[in-house]
Amino acid sequence: MGQAIVLGSGTSNGVPSLGKAYPAGYLANPKNHRTRPALLLQGPDGNVLVDCPPELRLQLTREGVHNLEAVLLTHTHADHVMGMDDLRSLCIRDQRAMPVYTAPQYQEDVKRIFPYAFEDFPEGIWVPRFDLRDVPKVLHLAGLDIKTFWVEHGRWPVLAIRVADFAYVTDVGEIPAAAWAQLQGLDVLVLDAVRFKPHPNHFHFERAIEVALKLGARQTYFTHLSDDYDHDQTNADLPAGIELAYDGLRIPF
Predict the structure, then answer these.
(1) Region 143-148 average pLDDT
(2) C-beta separation of 49 from 23 below 8 A
(3) pLDDT per residue as tens digits for the range 57-79
(4) Are 72 and 47 in contact (CB under 8 A)?
(5) Letter string b/e over residues 161-190, b meaning 16 or more CB atoms within 10 A of that residue's CB
(6) Mean of the pLDDT values across residues 197-216?
(7) Taking the CB of residue 210, how many other CB atoms lie within 10 A of it?
(8) Whether residue 23 has pLDDT greater than 90
């Protein structure tokens, strides 16, 4: 049917983070280099982007992606939206506003953060254009049926998605019962596991393992990862069926 590409598997600082020295051995592994979190869904009729982190242009060009049907925003924290201006090139080329699906409260954030995308300019001045839309329970895009539901990230609701037997749950500290029901019978789950130490708004390492084992997907990948994680060392200690995601990971569904 299609595939998901983990465009970015890092937490909000990215890895390596500014102002910190890292051992040479850590940096030598490309899977320890993590851009901010985003996902691409590739269907038979096109591509759907989930979130727009600051490295968006680099992520999409790295993967050879030059067309998008639409964008889903899980929420509007900086690491998930500050790359939206990179959509400008596609808007100019295609002469259309990019469809952007998100919650009404996050649509207001987009208007506040990118006011120029909704203003008029003289001919020859090019800006991105966003067609903001409410998220339905099922999105029919790119030949895919994308189920949408909400999890909790502290006081912020965060959009989670399921396509066939694949699900993506980023930035989560609590999974409500309605969302838990949507995560049953999965082949692959991509799940937040921000760091080793407990976090008030994210699953941390031990909690993510606990949730992953309860949900029982055939394969779980942890994402939104800090520099706590050395990719190879951590994978060696994880239970069977659980691994760390990495930038560029491809997951068929």
Answers:
(1) 98
(2) no
(3) 999 999 999 999 999 999 999 99
(4) no
(5) bbbbebbbbbbbbebeeebeebbeebebbb
(6) 98
(7) 11
(8) yes
Looking up residue 149, the CATH number of its domain turns out to be: 3.60.15.10
State how many domains the chain has.
1
- Write the DSSP symbol of residue 134: P
Structural domain boundaries enclosing 112: 3-244
Residue 216, SS3 per DSSP: coil
Domain contains 251? no
Nearest to 11 by CA among 233, 229, 238, 189: 229
In a domain, 35, yes or no: yes
Residue 1 scores a pLDDT above 90: no
Whether 253 is covered by a domain: the verdict is no
pLDDT of residue 131: 98
Q: Is 65 within a domain?
A: yes
Residue 208: CB partners within 8 Å, gap ≥ 6? Answer: 191, 192, 193, 222
CA 187 from centre of chain: 18
Structure tokens of 153? Answer: 């990230």
Both tokens assigned to 235: 């994978």
pLDDT in tens, 81-138: 999 999 999 999 999 999 999 999 999 999 999 999 999 999 889 999 999 999 999 9
Counting residues of the chain whose pLDDT is more than 70, the rounded percentage is 100
Contacts of 160 by beta carbon, 8 Å cutoff, 6+ apart: 74, 148, 149, 150, 151, 167, 168, 169, 170, 172, 179, 182, 183
